[in-house]
Design a protein that fits this description.
3 domains; 13% strand; 351 residues; Nucleotidyltransferase, domain 5; 52% helix; 7 strands; alpha/beta; 5-stranded mixed sheet
Amino acid sequence: MSITIGVDYHKKTSSYCVIDDAGNKIKRCKLPNQKDAVKNFLLSFDEPICLAMEATRSWSLYYDFIESYVNKFQLGHPKKMKALSESETKNDKHDSQVIAELSHMGYLPQAHVSSPLIRDIRDVVRYRGALVQQRRSIKNMVHSLVDRTVWLEDRPKSFKDIFCQRGIKWLESLNLAPKQKFILTDLLQSLENLNKTIKNIEGYITTFHDEFALMKHLKTVPGFRTGGINTIVVLSEISDINRFRKAKGFVRYAGFIPREHSSAGKISRGRLIKEANMHLRTAIIESTLAAIRIDKGLQAYYKSVKQRSGSSAAVIATARKLATAIYFVLKEQRPYLPHKFDVPPVAACHS
């Protein structure tokens, strides 16, 4: 005899629905998100407890507290659950019951529960990624300002990147209208501060190498041999390679599978799927650009696809090949061997 508890978790309160082995609802309540209240509620049951909840922003805070009070924990994948639980009736009581019933029937689409260490590392890595996005946005604003205020013929031809050392000096020397000069000065100051912050964070991230037992295997893969930031990104986003039964599942998780709409024998494929780990996808694509330069096999593959489909499609196809290699290297815990892996048969991908 056991019970299943569905939790609709919110910031201040949570709704609970308890069902028995036969699927009958035996209790429903709303509790404040206070440690004593949650603890006393869970300890009030003598039966083994399976607790299920949807992955929310703060699910890990709740999970780390209740883990020792339940026998089994299931984390629902929010996007996949939405397709199963959509209803005209939408409230906390209904949602907790749906979660409990899906878990009881074995239909709850589950998300992976990473260890506290991996979650902490991933938070730092994603924080760095958010700052990199901010830096890219600031650079775009600088480009936009220059396009509005400086004729193309008046720009230096001795460098292409205006954010190199000489480029920054040129930007600082521009004779602009006072208001435009104010904007540019502030943008350059923000950029300088961000560069320092990102460099500091990246130095901190490199200290995480010893936390990953599979690091030595990943560093044999082209594009990851220097052990840079992307090695930490890939390992922290994967968390546990054994949660993927096949290479195709991992390649899909990384987002290198095209969208498909097939009907009546007609197959139509489009751009890459959106339901992917974008942090992982970005890291692998960035590493692919480096791998193409140092691995002759990947370079030849890239060139062959480029001739047929263009450079963008070639990068994605090569990244998919590299993702497959990463899967087998980590799964089998061995060095990178190009001739040992096969790419899952999927039609040409598009960026």
